[in-house]
Design a protein that fits this description.
About 50% of the residues lie in helices and about 10% in strands. By secondary structure, it is α+β, with helices and mostly antiparallel strands. Strands 1-2 form a two-stranded antiparallel sheet.
Length: about 180
């Protein structure tokens, strides 16, 4: 299989590969495996009238990324194939919030959180803790159906109410 990347795309791919400590080919393999193997990855197509060249009509391609993040465990043979010369690698952001409720500017260091200005600012301004729950698609749909049956809808406020009730019930049970 032969693929070609140029310009800004190639530049950005090299940066991402360097951050992960793998070669661009390794990055392509990891990303494509996760895209095609995880539920929800699709590429939608449609005509693009503005892109006609030499009588060939243009197309628009819209990637829809999988519904959940991928997780790749690479064995030694893959690591050997992909490993870049650089020893650097990019650490993932931590899920722990040890500084709550005394968060201040500078406490959040990972670029994912600092680049998301609204998250970063809301952590400092409202002093609320965050719990993020990832569910498989089927379980998530079942959860939303249950919330709708109990609350009449599954708006964000209803989902939050149900989660808070569950947490309150659990804490009472633990006492």
């Amino acid at each position: 299989m032969q693929v070609e990347f140029k310009g800004k795309t190639l530049e950005n791919m090299k940066k991402l590969a360097d951050e992960a400590g793998i070669t661009p080919a390794g990055l392509i393999e990891v990303v494509m495996q996760q895209f095609v193997d995880n539920k929800g990855g699709r590429v939608y197509t449609g005509r693009w009238s503005g892109g006609e060249v030499d009588g060939v009509k243009g197309m628009r391609y819209v990637p829809q990324w999988p519904f959940r993040p991928g997780f790749k465990e690479a064995d030694g043979s893959e690591v050997k194939r992909w490993k870049a010369e650089s020893k650097a690698f990019r650490k993932h952001p931590t899920g722990a919030w040890p500084f709550y409720p005394h968060l201040k500017e500078g406490d959040i260091e990972h670029e994912y959180w600092t680049s998301k200005k609204m998250y970063h600012q809301s952590f400092m301004n409202d002093r609320k803790g965050r719990i993020v729950t990832l569910m498989d698609g089927d379980k998530y749909e079942e959860f939303l159906r249950t919330v709708k049956k109990r609350k009449g809808n599954f708006w964000a406020t209803s989902v939050e109410q149900v989660m808070m009730e569950a947490i309150d019930d659990w804490m009472v049970k633990e006492e």
